[in-house]
Amino acid sequence: MQRYDENLQKAKAEYQTIFTEQFKAIANNKATISSKDVDAYAKLLFKHFDANKNGRLEANEL
Question: What is the share, in percent, of the chain residues with pLDDT greater than 70?
């Protein structure tokens, strides 16, 4: 049980690091995220994944 708890704490810490990095990427070094920030980040991600450059994501592109 102790190992489970240790692994759980480690996973939580790793997820927090990931979430912090995602927040920084979306917020553009600001303390808050606006809907415009989310829209801009979504467009950036879409452009990155749209390998066919056809304006649509297909399962094989992910």
Answer: 100
